[in-house]
Design a protein that fits this description.
The complex is a heterodimer of chains A (328) and B (313). Chain A is 34% helix and 27% strand. With 328 residues, chain A is α/β, with parallel strands linked by helices. In chain B, 73% of the residues lie in helices and 2% in strands. Chain B starts with a helix and ends in a 5-residue tail after the last helix. Classes of the chains: A alpha/beta (328), B mainly alpha (313).
Chain lengths: 328, 313
């Protein structure tokens, strides 16, 4: 469905997107994550024809998004991170307006609009002014608006920002519904727990570079294919462990540093976190080594692997792109 | 025929607001006061005229002719309308594009199938439609001068066409300025500057030709007068004042002025001049619309150049 190949975007001399290559298959719900300024919005705006790329190619459903911006608009529905609505229009008029912007006939718009408003649970608000809707309702209305022309790809930039928990849950359910209907969705968000619940694949961007992409479970298990231009590395492999000791952390840290299978060590008071490139056997060996050296070990436990810990690991400024240098 | 969706939405939104009706009421009230003042002045003059002739016991055709003075109210009120609307339209169009950006609806608009030119066209047509609303609602006031005769239906129709073209011109400049400026205030000021530049700029070749002919017995204008075809103010003036317009005065002094061949041909017939001027003003307005469309296009406008000016692959 979406093919991005070696995409570059410069703002002046600063690269915002550096050689991004990505493929999103049809029917996928793709989560696009990364810290602020990572290049997510820039990438999305290029896909939607709102920004011209400095280099590379983007194809959506076979349409060249960079050179054929006229046709790309018919296959994409876009929900920006910040958007306004026409408050003095009624909900049905709002839908009619955007339908007519795609050259649709009023009777077709009315039919599709009714179905979409039902999908986003706003069918009872048809005759109400947009002004009277809550923020969450407006967000859902905007999703319905983006679907009015039945696009092949739905691009949502931070759709959950500023929403209360209930509205976020409703939005999540809506996107899950759309995904189950076979719609291809690309969504960026900072709420990683929600993304990991609903997305079947993710891409993590940092400093304009795609540092990880693929099915969530593949990334977690270290089986995801590293994105183009990325060095082979094992940042997603191994387990993250947390250890509590009594007294000084100097000796346990020294022991851990001597172990070639240990990386990404961070210390917070008496708590030491590190990544161990191995399984239960290696964990047992580490514990034995520490106990034999006389380290007063209080607790050691495996951290649950999730998108959040992965994101933190990958986008850690000090670690760069997740290299295996020790830190303390 | 499909109506431009932006035009449809804006008209729908505006007619829901009391502001439009208040502005229409104030506009017509101002026109009525000016009209009433004009009516009072002319009535007073006719009374004096009739007193003068009754003293000599002679009324005749001369007195009847004096009633045709009422018909002169039509061009005066029309000119006042042009002046007021020339001030109102830039204010109306000032936020046409910048307002969408401020409301954060512009990006969504750009991701729809409508082209940048379609957006600009919708905004300009909205301005023209609103202007025509002012013009058409003023017709009952203006039609008082019809009671006394002197105004043909064709002239009234011509007035509506002229106002349409005038609105198109001012509206296209307003939308261009709104696309250029970030704030509405700056857009209004720039609109007046641009309008002034067209009004004054088209006179420059004429002034230059007069300077060049300073030491000569005749004023060798050449074709410099043709630039006035682009001037909507001259177009309106020519239509309203016909035989007593500025260009007619120039033609009457033809013995001292040398015109180029095309100018002479156009000056011979006031209607031809007006029709050509209408075409030229429409073309000029389309040029402004085209520039506005370039400006709002995110891939070729100023934002694109700013983001890519120093780009390197």
């Amino acid at each position: 469905m979406l093919y991005i190949n070696n995409l570059w975007k410069y703002y002046g001399k600063t690269p915002a997107v550096s050689g991004l290559s990505l493929h999103i298959p049809e029917g996928d719900l793709f989560g696009f994550v990364g810290p602020n300024g990572a290049g997510k919005t820039t990438t999305m705006r290029i896909i939607c024809g709102l920004l011209r790329a400095s280099g590379g190619s983007v194809t959506v459903n076979g349409v060249d998004a960079i050179n054929n911006t006229k046709n790309i608009k018919r296959v994409i529905g876009y929900v920006p991170d910040f958007f306004g609505v026409y408050n003095n229009l009624k909900v049905k008029e709002y839908m009619e307006f955007y339908g007519s912007m795609y050259g649709m006939y009023t009777r077709d718009i009315q039919k599709i609009s009714g179905d979409l408003l039902e999908l986003v649970n706003l069918s009872d608000k048809n005759e109400e002014y947009v002004d009277s809707l809550s923020r969450g309702m407006k967000q859902r209305l905007c999703v319905a608006r983006a679907l009015i022309h039945n696009p092949k790809l739905l691009v949502l930039d931070e759709p959950n920002s500023g929403l209360d928990p209930r509205a976020r849950v409703e939005m999540k359910e809506l996107l899950k519904n759309l995904s189950s209907m076979g719609k291809t969705i690309m969504i960026s968000s900072h709420i990683l727990s929600e993304l990991s619940e609903m997305c079947n694949s993710v891409g993590i961007m940092n400093h304009g570079v795609l540092v990880a992409a693929g099915k969530i479970e593949d990334i977690m298990s270290g089986q995801a294919i590293p994105p183009q231009n990325m060095p082979q590395q094992n940042i997603f492999q191994g387990v993250r462990l947390t250890m509590n000791v009594l007294g000084s952390t100097d000796m346990p840290v020294r022991i851990l540093k001597e172990n070639p299978m240990v990386s990404h060590i961070s210390i917070m008071e008496r708590k030491i976190e590190f990544t161990l490139n191995g399984g239960d056997k290696e964990i047992a060996a580490i514990i034995a080594g520490l106990v034999n050296a006389g380290v007063p070990l209080v607790e050691i436990k495996k951290q649950e692997k999730n998108l959040e810990s992965l994101f933190m690991q990958v986008t850690d400024e000090d670690n760069g792109m997740g290299g295996d240098s020790h830190e303390n | 025929m499909k109506i431009n969706p932006i035009l449809k939405r804006e008209i729908k939104s505006d007619t829901r607001s009391i502001r439009l009706f208040l502005s229409l009421m104030i506009y017509n009230l101002v026109l009525f006061l000016i009209f009433a003042a004009g009516l009072a002045i002319i009535s007073d003059r006719i009374n004096n005229y009739s007193d003068y002739y009754s003293w000599y016991g002679w009324y005749g055709d001369t007195l009847l002719e004096s009633y045709s003075w009422f018909a002169s109210l039509f061009p005066i009120i029309a000119l006042v309308q042009c002046g007021i609307l020339g001030l109102i339209i830039p204010i109306i169009t000032a936020s046409s594009i910048s307002g969408e950006k401020e409301r954060q609806t512009f990006d969504i608009m750009l991701t729809t199938a409508i082209t940048p030119m379609g957006i600009v066209r919708g905004k300009v047509f909205t301005a023209v439609t609103k202007m025509m609303l002012y013009v058409i609602t003023s017709i009952p006031i203006m039609s008082v001068s019809f009671i006394f005769g002197g105004i043909k239906w064709s002239r009234l129709f011509g007035f509506v066409v002229i106002m349409l073209v005038y609105g198109f011109f001012v509206g296209s400049i307003g939308v261009l300025c709104s696309a250029i400026c970030k704030s509405s205030k700056a857009s209004i000021i720039l609109s007046f500057v641009y309008c002034g530049a067209v009004y004054v700029g088209t006179l420059i070749p004429l002034v230059v030709s007069s300077f060049l002919s300073y030491n000569s017995n005749t004023w060798d204008m050449g074709e410099s007068l043709l630039f006035l075809l682009l001037n909507p103010a001259v177009m309106v003036e020519e239509f309203l004042f016909g035989n007593s317009s500025i260009l007619s005065d120039l033609q009457e002094n033809g013995g001292y002025i040398n015109y180029g061949g095309i100018t002479e041909m156009l000056l011979e017939n006031n209607t031809v001049w007006i029709i050509v001027s209408i075409i030229m003003v429409i073309l000029l307005s389309y040029l402004f619309m085209w520039l506005a469309a370039i400006r709002v296009n995110p891939l070729i406008g100023k934002d694109y150049r700013r983001n890519n000016g120093k780009a390197k692959k």
